[in-house]
Amino acid sequence: MRVRAEFTTEPFVGEGEVPAHVTHSAALLTEAGLDADLGPFGTSVEGDDRVLLPALTNVFAAALAAGATRVTLQLERLDGVELLDGREARTTATNHDGATP
């Protein structure tokens, strides 16, 4: 299944060098073959759950080891959900600009 993770690591720092807990996180996502989008308030990344979920475990452990005091995660499933009886329930995903993909 395809998922999107958006997470924030704290503490926040002002302008200047990006903290190690952010750069280590991004490097681990890249090593896992994922393309992370680092923004001023967090990181977002999409991918197959079989790749992304294990990578997130490594990312969060590395962020804490590099000085993060808090990690906040939002995880969203982007594809349909097949129910046990074979029917499909659809999730309604929207882009950051509010448009439905």
Features of this protein?
single chain; 101 residues; four-stranded antiparallel β-sheet; 31% strand
Describe this structure in words.
This protein starts with a strand and ends in a 12-residue tail after the last strand. Strand 5 (81-82) and strand 6 (88-89) form a beta hairpin. It has helices at 20-31, 49-65, and strands at 2-10, 37-39, 42-48, 70-77, 81-82, 88-89. The chain is elongated. Helix content is 29%, strand content 31%. The chain is an alpha+beta fold.
From the alpha carbons, calculate the radius of gyration and give it in angstroms: 15 Å
Seen as an oligomer or otherwise, the chain set is: single chain
SS summary, helix count: 2
Elements, N to C (H/E): EHEEHEEE
Portion in strands: 25-35%
Q: Please mark out the parts with pLDDT under 50 across 5 or more consecutive residues, or reply none.
A: none
What is the residue-mean pLDDT, rounded to a whole number? 82
Element layout with pairings:
Layout: E1 2-10, H1 20-31, E2 37-39, E3 42-48, H2 49-65, E4 70-77, E5 81-82, E6 88-89
Antiparallel strand pairs: 1-3, 1-4, 2-3, 5-6
Helix pairs in contact: 1-2
Compose a concise summary of this entry.
With 101 residues, the protein is of the alpha+beta class. It has two helices and six strands.
